[in-house]
Amino acid sequence: MLRVLVKKQLTEVFRSYFFNPKKNQMRSKGAILLLFLLFFLLLAGVLGGMFTFLALSLCPGLEAAGMGWLYFLLLSLLAIAFGTFGSVFNTFSGLYLPKDNDLLLSMPIPVRTIILSRLINVYLLGTMYSAAVLLPMMIVWWVTAGATVSNVICCVLLFFIVTFLVLILSCLLGWVVAKVSLKLRNKSYITVLISLLLIGLYYFVYFKAADLIRDLVENAGRYGEKIRASAYLLYRFGTIGEGNLPAALITAAATALVFVLVMLLLSKGFVKIAVSKGTVSKARYRERKTRAKSVFGALLSKELRRFTSSPVYMLNCGLGVLILPALGVLLLIRGREILTLLDAAVPGYPGFSVFILSAAMILVSTLNIIAAPSVSLEGKSIWIPQSLPVEPKTVLLSKCAVHLILTGVPMLFVCVCAQIAVSADAAGRLALFFLPLIFTAFMALFCTFLGVRHARLNWTSEMMPVKQGAAVMIALFGGWGISALYAVPFLLAGYRLGAPAYLALWCAVYLILSLLLLRWLGRRGAETFSRL
To answer: Contact, 318 vs 368, CB < 8 A?
Structure first.
């Protein structure tokens, strides 16, 4: 039974490798093998290669300075962090709150067998992520410093110590996430916030990695002394990789003891969490007035709720909602200084700062493609808006309006900030104010046009229309192409017109295109939508 449950857990994790949601059928053996091969190349080639480069950057300098323990300590802590964050959300959804809890608990299967099968699944996934750091760490050390019997044994013990620490931390953090999840009413914003924080942390570390490595190697002695003085246990942990067998055995025993304690706590509280459905407050009737909405207002509210209820939708199609205000704040703080430097650096292009700022605002606005998957997201429920006593044109315009509001309001803030930061005449300021707003309206209509033309309703997961749909791909890359089409002519010959005239010309172009798209949505687009 344990083997069957473990197989079931792993099959659920890699479900998309075995099952094709587009065709609603199992994949062929060749396709499954190819997908797993690509996954292995990504894990071993990309991630493994990245951490191998990191190990090669640290190992020679620290080994020559006699501080191999610091090398093993740093990379082991990195492996723990990488493995934990890589598997903690799988622990939350796969150990504590999977969808089949009620089914399995109702069957004559011991609870400890269910827990053990899920723990094995969590351990294997955590080990998969940790190994991308641990294996390069060990191999680079053996090649650089040489491999001995004690060193190899201790490195193997260190591998299992780290992977079990990852399992322990994943269980504890997954328990916290599960408990918090049961208390939250709207989890979408929390998911988006955590995702953005992790993305920001990744890019911060990525861009600072070279400086951090150089500083660490140059000041290894000073950092090492501080760790020895204030965190002696961490120093002893790092010496395991160098071949300190007593430290390896003591640490392994301590890890095993903590693991047993965590398992005892988990077995006691597992059933309570597994059968929990979250806090349900008792409903009380309260009389209050409800304001009637117009047809368009009701449709607009429905589209806004659809957007804010899906973390996948918000992260993949609405990133510009956050980046546009950040651009406005940057303009308020450093805008005048940056734009002055740009004008001085490119003297042959009059009004270059006005042009480049407008191009940047246009490019950032293309990160919002909210309207592109909105028709496809209706899915099999497309008959509902089609059967309502509402014109199809009104339905499409409500989808377009969500894009326009969520992009246009932040863009208006950026336009006001740009007026404060830029140094230009009245014509340049007016063109810089109106061009991004007109372009935003154009992109909203263009994305709605693509959503109707490339509607995809037979999906089984919302990730398919949001991340893989043709409308989304064309809107994203097409937006970049449209931005380039605006910028390149100015650099080639448009600068001769002057920035204000060039921006005014494109205002007219985008306005005409917007009117044509609006006309198409009201006629052929509405007809196409009604036949979907």
So the answer is: yes
